[in-house]
Amino acid sequence: MATGHSVLLAFLVTLGMVSSVFGVANIAAFNIQVFGQSKIGKPDVVDELEKIISRYDLVLIQEIRDSAGTAIVELLDKVNDHSSNTYAMDIGPRVGRTSSKEQYAYFYRTDMFWVKDSFTYSDPGDLFEREPYVVHFGIKTSAVTGVDDFSVIGLHSKPDDAVNELDEMNNVYKAAKSKFGNENSILMGDFNADCNYVRSSDWSSISIRMDSSFEWLISDYADTTVKSTDCAYDRIVLAGSAMKSAGYGGGVFDYQTAYGLSDDLAEDVSDHYPVYFKLK
Hints:
- The chain has helices at residues 4-15, 18-21, 37-40, 43-53, 71-82, 162-180, 207-210, 241-246, 255-259, 263-269, and strands at 25-35, 58-64, 87-91, 103-109, 113-120, 133-139, 149-154, 185-190, 214-216, 234-239, 247-252, 275-279.
- By secondary structure, it is an alpha+beta fold.
- The strands form 2 sheets. Strands 3-4-2-1-12-11 form a 6-stranded mixed β-sheet.
- The chain starts with a helix and ends with a strand.
């Protein structure tokens, strides 16, 4: 027989409210492959994106390619229609060296977080194909007590330059720490940090990997890709003593298995799975 507590838990899971009730924020990074007018025009894909995004309280979305700028706004509206929670968005400028520019966006629950400040990394050495977008978040709710505020540094690296771009992330972190006066940060995104782009012999050249000040949550042996490759491209890295103490439980959300999707539909959603962790 179900207890009152188990019935309540099942109800809260359905509503997507477990994280705030039990003192945990669920935070994720998701490369939604070539997200633009074509993808937002596929209702079956959007249905899956709504479900995936609403699992989390704060989500970094990457590979937004839409010069009109309307697809991501429509996705936010769809997520808000689907979820019992209310999400807002902070979106960076279109960046990239070629005509195929991308944006970073953060969807976040308005009852839990607020945006204090943001900036795009100036990239003085032109090392990034898509300069990281950095957002300083404040925490509204007592559900998360481990940190008061923190920055999130989002990166979608250029595969062939992944080693150099990841090494430069140390300077991005220092810039965020200086600007916001806060050492607690989350560095995350599609780092292309595995397989042919970052080999085991490359780690010694990447300062945020060798410096014990940074904690990597996603295993080198994880598979964050939907198709036949087996690569840990997508990563989450924590910095700052409070953030490292409060962050735990990094993982990969295999939405194809979780939702029983066909290969075709899973690949239409993205070629990457979201990576996530919990913040207490």
